[in-house]
Amino acid sequence: MKNKIFSLLLAIILFAFLPFGSKNAQAINQTETERLTQQIEILMQQANLLRALISNLQSQQEITALSYLAVRISDNAVVLNKNPDQPYSIASVTKLMTAAIALENIKADQTIKLTEEMLKPLGSSPALYPGADVSAGNLIKAILIQSTNDAAEALSYFLGKEKFLNLMNQKAKQLEMTSTVFYDVSGLNPANRSSATDLAKLLTYIYINHKEILTISKSNDFWLPDKNNKLVKFKNVDYLYPLSAFVGGKTGYLTEAKQTLASIFNVNGKPIAIIVLYSSNYQADALAIIKKLNNLKSL
């Protein structure tokens, strides 16, 4: 019965995109058809993600993360925590700092020509290929939406890898992220470490100074052409992005880090930074934390 209702709702949503009348039907060109196909794909993906989230929430109640933290952005009040000062490998959560440094040091419309050296890291897209001219703004979208590692590498090469990394570590010191260190810009290096307390400081900084990072990370409608000029979709790899409460943030995974998350959610109308480190299931852990927060009268 639930599946029938779900399918009916999805059909209604898709129906809203369809044109009416014979004249409109005849007026559909190839571009409009492609746009409609893309919209359907996005909606189907969101529906599948929501199903997965519901399944996760139903199957798990205990929080698996060895460290987690929930902080109210408005006054930095700690609402919920476990081992918040213990540093762990953070994987692609690294890219939050990468995006902030890129925005502060490279103009969004600056064109960057991609090279073989930039594209060496694992985690790439066919729309990023040697010789392609890509704006810094689009590279930032690639790292925040699909967590594309070579896009992060390209941004660092533009400024100089050593300089970019120094800027990341300097920003961490400026924000008093005392347990944080970065050895690369993508998070592939397990030596990139931080604590939940430190990452809450970074999220607060981003919320105040770079809300565009949060907005981009919530998107699932970003495309770039490949070398054959065919549009390639950058799929959002954060399964929490369809939630209305999700403001934005980043997740990551490495064997050494397990699953990580540093994101902001609206809980009872208030922006809350939620950090999860060394988790077996970041989606279920985040939802379990939000559930606990919703039950707090003091929030």
Poorly predicted sequence stretches spanning 5 or more consecutive residues: 1-28
Major sheet: 5 strands, antiparallel
Average pLDDT, rounded to a whole number, is 86
What shape does the CA trace take?
globular
State the CATH topology of the largest domain. Beta-lactamase
Structure summarized in a few sentences:
Helices cover 44% and strands 20% of the residues. It is built from ten helices and eleven strands. A hairpin with a 4-residue loop joins strand 1 and strand 2.
Protein model, in words:
The protein has 299 residues and is of the alpha+beta class. The chain folds into two domains: 2-58; 60-294, Beta-lactamase (3-Layer(aba) Sandwich), CATH 3.40.710. The protein is 44% helix and 20% strand. The chain has ten helices and eleven strands. It has helices spanning 2-15, 21-27, 30-59, 94-105, 136-145, 149-159, 161-174, 196-209, 211-217, 282-294; strands at 67-72, 77-82, 88-89, 111-113, 133-135, 193-194, 222-225, 231-234, 246-254, 258-267, 270-279. The strands form four sheets. It has a five-stranded antiparallel beta sheet with strand order 2-1-11-10-9, sandwiched between helices. The chain has a two-stranded antiparallel ribbon with strand order 3-6. A two-stranded antiparallel ribbon has the order 4-5. Strand 9 and strand 10 (258-267) form a beta hairpin. The longest helix has 30 residues, at 30-59. It starts with a helix and ends in a 5-residue tail after the last helix.
